[in-house]
Amino acid sequence: MGLKFQVFVLCLSIQFLIIAATTNSDDAAALSSLKDIWQNFPPNWKGSDPCGGNWDGIQCSKSRVISITLSGIGLSGTLSGDITTLSELQTLDLSYNQDLTGPLPSTIGNLKKLTNLILVGCGFSGPIPNSIGSLSKLVFLSLNSNSFSGPIPPTIGNLAELYWLDLADNKLTGTVPVSSGNSPGLDMLVGTKHFHFGMNQLSGTIPEQLFSSNMSLLHVLFDSNNLNGSLPTSLGLVQTLEVVRFDRNQLSGSVPANLNNLSNINELFLSNNRLTGPMPNLSGLNALSYLDMSNNSFDSSTFPTWLLTMQLLTTLTMDSTQLQGEVPTEFFSLPSLQTVVMRNNQLNGTLNIGSSHSTQLELIDLTGNQIDSFTETTGAENVEFILASNPICEESGATRDYCSPDQENSNYSTPYNNCISSPCPSDQISSPNCHCAHPYKGTLVFRALSFSGLNNYTYFTSLVESMIRAFQSYQLPVDSISLSNPHWDSNEYLNLNLQVFPPSGEDSFNLTGIYSLGFVLSNQTYKPPSDFGPYYFIAGQYQHFAGESGSNKSTNIGIIIGAAAGGCVLLLLLIFAGVYAQRQKKIAQKAYEQNPFGHWEQNKSSGSIPQLKAARCFSFEEVNKCTNHFSETNSIGSGGYGKVYRGTLPTGELVAIKRARQGSMQGGHEFKTEIELLSRVHHKNLVGLYGFCFEQGEQMLIYEYIPNGSLSDTLSGKTGIKMDWLRRLKITLGAARGLAYLHELANPPIIHRDIKSTNILLDDCLNAKVADFGLSRAMIETGKDHVSTQVKGTIGYLDPEYYMTQQLTEKSDVYSFGVLMLELITARRPIERGKYIVREIKTAIDKKKDLYNLYELLDPTIGLGTTLKGFGKYVDVAMSCVQESGADRPTMSEVVKEIENILQIAGLNPKAESASTSASYDNASKDSLKHPYDNVDEAFDYSGSFPSSNVKPH
Question: Half-sphere exposure of residue 917, counting CA atoms within 13 Å on the CB side?
């Protein structure tokens, strides 16, 4: 009777699941209506149950359609108002379907739960409906590269959650809307990071009200419009700006002086306008790499001396800007300089780039000036000089190469990977790995780069490598990538032909692969290296889908065979169900008993129950799926605790998953500690916790994914990220702010107990984030200023006072942070070849000498040939943090203030900067302890006897 009952229950459950899988009738009707007006929709859109039938490109939850992603599959037709009945829809991506035409439905605002509306590179036209301002949850709005016309809807200002706003490359007209009375405007988008409005027909003046100090914009792109009047002074209030393009308009008047306050700007384009007045002083733009001021009517002036301080400048373009006099030789010594273009000015005298010119220098174009002599320099063989239409080239018989240059575009194409390509069929192409296939093709368009030298192939190699890593991390079926034909278009955008090849052994992608690739690129999920800046992608139509040929007859035969086989399998499953259910019950019970949280009473909030805020409990099945069954290709770190895997959530978000190995030393206590602490602390300089999993005897933590790895990797050169003095100051400030938050604003205060360079992670903007809270301790109110606890930490960073007294205070973190500060300027591990960094610095310091006499100890890549403003004060702060007595050390809030002062000295606005077990110490006798660094070699060997972990949520 027991087995019969279990079979009955199973049958009932199957019947329930069949009913539950049936698509909501309104959603099914909406998709059926779209199918009636679309052509080239996916072949498996059959039947009347999109969710139960697993229609390609359709994602459902509880019988409701929540996502439609069908980019680049050749859809044609219109987008009817029927789509607005999908009331649970969250993501709509129809990008790269050029034959989707007509207007957007006026009822688009009914999709109240929509977070992503992505229609890049389609054929939509007509006005953008005002109702779009009713999409209150919208985060991503990408309508670029269509034919939308009419004004920008002011109602977009109501989208308080908006992160990305891209309306570029359309036919939009009218003025830029700002709020007035009850009417909204773009000035209300204080949380938005991206304003992309280039290549439209916008006109009128730029409202002063558009920008404010409350905004957090990174990119402001208004290039190639018909805007007139002056640049608003309010632009200089947006301290977060990194890329600004107002080129190719009709702007007039002087450049606002307060633009000099924008210390985070990397690329600034003001060319091809009617700007007048004096050449602006931009000496405060310390991060500037690309500057184009060409074709304006500035007052005549000599070469701006402030340009000599631009240490990160790669590209200077100043055509027709009334410059005169000689170009200083020292200008060409800027370490990052690649391209100098100053045509059609009145520059004169001798061109001499000097013997210490930048090794990256590629092009100097001074066509149409008054240069009468040229000093040829040894070591400049790779620099192209263009001096046509200068007196030096107008002399009788002048035949030098620089008088008749032969300029060519880069002929770069991704090389083959140590293989020999064989001939392919006429409709296929050989991949970099030498196999013939039908690639996914398109054009990558970069709107503001930090470089200009198209013959420096290192940049393109890094782009290829980053794309392959990203696509593989998103579990896309990609074998290799080819880039070719880099060239500048008329808008000074860099265009690159992209070809993505399917896995070896397959000659084409299936439909799922195509729209998945399209979504990663249209949704900006893929982030290129920082040198490439903002981009968009336009895909060509893919016509060689794999595994989708065959007649309806073969499909019907397959259904019949499948049904027959399914009947047999179902019978076996029914018999197996009883045995399996009983076995699973025993497994679940065992996992429950081993689970460190198994006895939590989830409906209470006292005792040992973790207080979880915003941390989600993931099932093992969810985590297993998002890591592709914990594939080794997704493994990004390992250590004594276990492994860290990269995963992709159903929403497309990347996460890092720390999975404890069986028998891990960390145990349930540290696991529970990290969940409790990270779930209730939220700060931009702390790694965020998505959730955790503790099913089936597993202990896993799910973090936000931090793409640039650890500070330790960057200091060692593994990541290839440039670490100049200013960048190190910003990272120091970010880490200090995160730690100060833990000490003084968390409730109760938290002592991290394991501050070190491997626990400081760098996000895509190189913001520092403190990670790994497995050893942290909360300072519960006890009337004491310390916690008596077993000593744990990492040798080299460990506070000697805590080591000897076993009394933990916030000042123990301060000591570790001081060591970290010294590591930041030396790029040396705290203990290296038996030498302790704190002692080495103390011994070498001489405040009367340059750089405190620390030149030999400093990291050469910090920029030792430049002035390190605030360096002495930085060392003073670091050494105050590593005082022997905790009472003599500053608090972290005091450290933050000092670093902010140093940043101001360096010329930056500080207001704009805004998983594992370490080597631990379990000592039997407190009395036997001595100072941990009295004998460095002994201390170093001592720590080596303990398992250490480098598991990090990179």
Answer: 22
